[in-house]
Amino acid sequence: MAKFVVAGKANCPYYAKAEHLADCLQATLPNFRVHKITQHPDKWEQWLHDVCETNGWEHRQSPIIWRELLDRGGKGQLLGGLNDFLEYAQQYYGITSMMLSKEMLDIAEENLQAHLEIVKEDEKIKSLIKPMQIWITSASTPICYQLIPLLANGEVFGMTTEISIHLLDTGQFKEVLCSIVMEAEDMAFPLLRSILEHTEIDEAFIEADVIIVLDDVLLNLEVQSLENYIREVSEICQVYAPLIEKNAKSEVRVISSGKTFANLKATLIMTYGPSIKPENIIAVATSWESAAKATLARKLNVSTAGVKDVIVWGNITGSNYIDLLHAKLYGYDGAIWGPANFQRPLLNMIYDREWIHSEFLSAQGSLRSRVGRCTGMLPAHAVATALQYWYHGSPPGEIVSVGVLSEGQFCVPEGIIFSMPVSFQNGSWEVIKELEIDGTTQEVLGRLAHELIQEKLVALKEIKEIHPYGEG
């Protein structure tokens, strides 16, 4: 058995001719085998140098051809370049190549394109093997503790996608982070390649695919003013945004969550990190959406899964508006029955309209109280659900509420993160612009937008006062 290796630059016409001759020999001779290697022109010289150094050969051009001594072991026997191969084939087998120069050039171009396609496919396969890098800030919080199993069980990113989780917090929480890491490792999730703790801010967000921002401030307006809390949030985002630009991947997705200033954090990261794609920054409203559906389901004595298309407008962790105008009800035990997809307008099923305003939507109502008391499980589920929709699509035909950058939809001013109805498909979100809203809702949206604009103005004003000349 004779096995030859033919290697060369992918765009080399002489390699093309040597390859053609080797193919002819393999097709003609039953005991002749050839292995072909192409290298990108930019990498050829280094590759050739390494091969020759390993084998003790002297060769400087493309192609290089050698015979592997399968029956003897040891290193191969250098044959040489194209002319050496042509002479060898003619002398031993009486076969040569009559390929013309134009044909050599054409095949060389085809070889280069084929090589580039192979490299691209290899990179895609490697990206599937390389785990997705997930960074979580303020990782000592209960939300993070509840979130880790949801991310690691495969339902969010897919059952074939491995992940590495990075927990970021200040040094005072190092022991807490180490405990979380140890517990997560002990759970032995098949898709969790690694979980690491970080307390040095300079190493934050390296190679990040997804960043989940959980930083919160403990609001107590009797202790200090709202402006001071906004300043705290602004300072955090001023640190994070440049690091995201510097260390994270260009297509990084940023999710803002937590119990305070979710919209503002997303807006400021976008403001202080202008190279981060705006469509890749969202604020999570799913906690309010889920809690609203559960409250309505209890009122109507139906399954929570039967309540659809409840919309959360505005400032997710501030003044928001729960819109039931488009909400639908499935599986209601009433006089009229239908198939599983039979739905009714939810507002038509609530006869106690006073309950909606006095209990459900009021500032002191049951919904706001329930969301306010949630410490970990509900917001963690909200983040996981938003990520799952982002990567795999939201249920067809259903409305999802997410804080996204306003571009003037529904007459909301541009430049703020505003919760509005969207759908997820093919790895991106799209605002459902065709929804009709009444005059009352439009008026409410105006008030909500004003609050978010004021928060943003206060944050930017504080920064200007600290850096009046725009220094970093």
From TrEMBL:
Write down the species: Pipra filicauda (Wire-tailed manakin)
The UniProt keywords, alphabetically, are: NAD, Oxidoreductase, Tricarboxylic acid cycle
Q: Which GO terms describe its biological process?
A: malate metabolic process; tricarboxylic acid cycle
The reply on keyword Oxidoreductase is yes
What sequence ranges are listed for the domain Lactate/malate dehydrogenase C-terminal?
380-456
Entry's family note: Belongs to the LDH/MDH superfamily. MDH type 2 family.
Does the keyword section mention NAD? Answer: yes
A GO MF annotation of the entry reads: malate dehydrogenase activity
Q: What is this protein called?
A: Putative malate dehydrogenase 1B
Ranges that cross the membrane = none
